[in-house]
Input
Amino acid sequence: MTADITKGLELRSLIKSSGELEISLQQVTIPAPGADEIVVRVEAAPINPSDLGLLLGAADPSTAKVSGAGASTVVTATVAQANMKAMAGRLDESMPVGNEGAGTVVKAGSSPEAQALLGKMVAVIGGAMYAQYRLIKAKEVLPLPDGTTAAEGASCFVNPLTSLGMTETMKREGHKALVHTAAASNLGQMLNKICQKDGIDLVNIVRSEAQEKLLRDIGAKYVVNSTAPTFVDDLVVALEATGATIAFDATGGGKLQGQILHAMEVAAVKAMKVYSRYGSDTFKQLYIYGRLEPRPVEFMPPGFAWSMGGWLLFPFLQKIGREDAAKLRARVVAELKTTFASHYTKTISLQGVLNLDNLRAYAKRATGEKYLINPNMPG
Amino acid sequence: MTADITKGLELRSLIKSSGELEISLQQVTIPAPGADEIVVRVEAAPINPSDLGLLLGAADPSTAKVSGAGASTVVTATVAQANMKAMAGRLDESMPVGNEGAGTVVKAGSSPEAQALLGKMVAVIGGAMYAQYRLIKAKEVLPLPDGTTAAEGASCFVNPLTSLGMTETMKREGHKALVHTAAASNLGQMLNKICQKDGIDLVNIVRSEAQEKLLRDIGAKYVVNSTAPTFVDDLVVALEATGATIAFDATGGGKLQGQILHAMEVAAVKAMKVYSRYGSDTFKQLYIYGRLEPRPVEFMPPGFAWSMGGWLLFPFLQKIGREDAAKLRARVVAELKTTFASHYTKTISLQGVLNLDNLRAYAKRATGEKYLINPNMPG
Output
């Protein structure tokens, strides 16, 4: 069964110096696994917001055109000249895409560790997952319990570990409750499940009444709508009720970051007994982990006891160390069908990624909508 | 000699709910010192930017009027309605002013520790220093070597410890060189002396050619002018040369903060060998320690490995602990006439603080200009 797998399709994204994005499928050679390596037949890989950055780059999806057919289909789109500077590091380089996924181990090297995985369902993070086969070291995969499907295991890493990373960061940095923006997202819903299970107070910031209802329907206690005229006052009330002094922000632009820190400072100053012209000494932290909003961040420094910074999953996992990261992964596996269950709008093939209707849909990054790729589903 | 001191003048700042600032002198009672306390006759106290925030609040100095005469002189000025919200915490409360100063111990409690200080010149930080006498615990003052004048010892804390705090923070947080804005200030010049003595690379950001020359004349190697058309490019060159990845910013508004982080990221990306859409993993830190610029901060997040936050001297000293803070203070005393020498434009009496010509001059916070108050100089 295993000897015949020597080639497979892999999705590639290329941005040319001329300002053109090209998405295509390449037939690539699957090398024979080394002693400690395995080959995974990828059967499910989600399209996360973090994948779209690499897949589409700064190209404008509305300019997308398709040519060719079958495995030779090619999508092209235009990158506006103003956005080319940000693409400098990847120009004219054909890049594999897909952070995570799951599938069956179909080939294994000679080591006992690799051999033990043969035929098993495993979850993988490591890039190049939008491909029919993925060669990887045996120790880098996460074996899934018997009876787990590829679709169930496809999103084991990015969303579960990011949302767990938020509550972990909250605890490790001495905060007792947290704030989350774009809170109706797949990740935001998962964070609500974690917080409800762990008894952590979470202030959800959403952008519409529909999203407010969605979160209340899954049991969220604190939901504030940033488009409401009473937003900042509502936020202060929720911050006073929860004592939240750390926020995770997916938008990364505009005035929301400053509004959150300002509201935290207002809540802290209300509790002060003695005036200080420096404001409160309650430490307020805001982490930006996404860039849904392309405008610059604009804010008034909220006193002096504050920090705003970038937050990314991989540096966080490195910081907490191998052992603690393994504990988080073990929790994800244990609660894969409950807390960490993901829901997908649609499952598509590798060729389906190049379908313009699909592309326009997943490129929207619409809250609550999520696509799953099955690279071994006939296109 | 000591029994007769029971009253003294103290400067007060009051902002009324009506929107009026009132600066006056109050005759206050000097309590007899407890066993572990002393009374310092204040002979020199600087007007630092950090004092002006409390002294003038959000009042507009151009509206200042004077009435009365001698010790009954009163200055009034108007606080614009839009700025009253920020004053909410101090309304209708008569507040003493003056963070630091130096003077002679004229009364001492019965404890040996207090008695040992009688007749000595000491430096004090703790507020209410714009006063003829200051009651304080003996253990809270810094005894100065014989032969030190009050003027020499007046600025022992704020500028010396803030500039030492910057190089200490740099080292403790793992950076090898630093950036400073408003770099031609008294504090900025002191930081240059520390860095030259300690062999630390410092990138000075100034706002004029005159300030550029001033710093080069005192031996600064890296000076960039933020008003030059080539500013960001010049900054990148200086950052590449020094490897600076931490900045201390006195302005706290506008686009300068983002320009510094962006230039650090450009320098870091130049050194990268493999593309990442998240940018470099070189951690970039910017601390805001002042508010010379009242506009909001506006910036594009520079990748994900960055942080921007408030920095204040007192939380820093608390964080490093009593023992390490004592080491920094000992260094200040040892180098008081060299590295940490302060220069003053003018010495004025307590009544001189209420003189409108003086007020308009010190309210300007002009770089390189600094006033010293001698509360026991005849007004």
Q: What stands out?
A: The longest strand of chain B covers residues 20-29.
